[in-house]
Amino acid sequence: METPELKKYPQLEEVVAFHGHMCPGLAIGYRAALAGLDRLAVTRASDEELVAIVENDSCSVDAVQVLTGATFGKGNLFFRDWGKQVFTFGRRDESRAVRVALKSPGREMSREERTAFILDAPVEEVLDIREVDLELPPPAVIHKSVRCDACGEQVMETRTIKQDRKTLCAECASHG
User: What pTM did the predictor assign?
Assistant: First the structure.
């Protein structure tokens, strides 16, 4: 897919620039994020008001980050390693959430065909979108950092492990 063709899709050039290339996974995240934002009637998060829960660590998540503004750093992007092209978006101010899942295309396609199908097909052919009851994760909390007694690196106090009267990071504790 050449760059001029990307211009017909709002913000897709920005998504591709962030990710580095166009691919089916990026198209999935692009359509899923736009569908979730639309259903929740919100725009990109400026802080933690919008939550994104992603069930994979594929290219699609880059599109979700760019379009929704949800990031690990802000504490409003959550990863569940379930290997599914499923995304849940939630509004903390309304305690509402929507689950967006990729539908099977029903036939084999080339990479280019799949990307075009995901971008151009009616949303109901590409995605299953439904409101869900979900207790959204609480906003991020900043915890005190302490020094690991083994490696000397700073670690969030709530992530330390006590072993033999020492305060250890999880990595040092696992080598114990």
Answer: 0.84
